[in-house]
Design goal:
about 50% helix, six-stranded mixed β-sheet, alpha/beta, about 450 residues, Rossmann fold, 2 domains, 19 helices
Length: about 450
Amino acid sequence: MTAIHDQAMHHIYRQVLERLLNHMSQSQRASLQLLIQRLLIAAGGAEYIGTFRVLVLHGNDRRSARLLAMLRAAQLSIAARGPVTFQLRVLVISQPAPSFNTLIAHERAFNALFLQDDPRVELLMVQGRAVRPFSRDWVPSRDDAPAASTAMLMLGHLARTRPEGVLGAWLYLDLATTFSEAVQSQTPVDVMITAIPARERHRFLAWFRRILHLAGEIGLPEAQHCLAALADGLSQLSRRLEGAGGQETMPAGREVQARTPLRVMAIDELLADLLEGQKLESMLGNACAVPEDAYPLGAFVEPEALAQVRQLQGRAEQTLGCRPALSLKNQVDKPGRGRAAQAGGVLGLSHDQLICLLFAPFARRGEHLERYLKCRHTDMLVALPYLHYALRGEPCPQAVKAWLVNVSGLPVAQLRAVYETSLPASAIRVLRHLARRDINLRLLCQAPLPAQGSDVEWS
């Protein structure tokens, strides 16, 4: 029975390979042969290819989908020529959390490549900050990534920048933390393969090294050459924001020096034609949520979250008449907020927490707290002195603390850290540099707070 099953699977794999080759252009098939040669050389020869483990980070763009198709074709081509082939680990990343539509698109591509039933393939996804087997039935919950949401809120309140800058700064740190944990928690891989263009790749690495330098992370010689060491250093910055009161954490350099450097194989020069034609896309079921391919890190952001942030930014730039708003205890979700609620589930933040983030009313000892209350929560103006008491750690009614936590999404300890701006100077310096750029490292013009009398209602 086993022999019959193996023969049937071998026939299916050959059919998948034939379909892949039929959907490739002549130049893509030539690139495939070069890719196979490079993989065999990296493994140390054909006799070692059976134990060679390859990692690929899978995003939501065409480049990710076609790179995966080329790697699958290489895996099946090697298997057709010999008894064994390399092991492929696919890590799906869609930050802050993948939506149902994104998971369906990924599953469609995986089915077309017949990945889910192949023991030589590991399909993983980031769930919160845990790495788990891929499943399209995963539903995000508030318990999946509380630390990540806290880090995003801390970034926004301390940096006081445009929402796109908040999302970009958070993406850099959270992606590094996710990658660091994925590399440590799973069976070690021999190489990570990327098709990010060299110019963009060097730009990202230079920027990340500068961030570590600004943070005062010294003793990281491996970070100049090892992607895993660089990710470890960046993840420490995120943990500083997640710690109560912004406490310092152990420098990354003490933890990563004994690690074997992670090799990175960049094959963008082999696959210059990766984005040509539409044949591969039609085979994969157009499994691509992000149409733009110019900025690679944008492929790891959930499209719904990015759309939400852009919509919020657009609302913030409008100057409308201010109208009174009720406190959270009297608010209920309106039918018109359906889209906000759905996208808020992806970001892990409620509508009111996003609005509070836009105003950033607690930083610098509540400099803009009164202004925020006048525009959003006029019924809380009478409690303004008690809000300051709570933020200074002085005695105040418990209901005031509960309101602060509810409207901001941050625990009281973090709110006090924001109020006193008590993070280390190095962390503040890093935040300001991170928040100056969006997810593609494009420099943002600093936008002022919503003007007095403006209404940033988002429905």
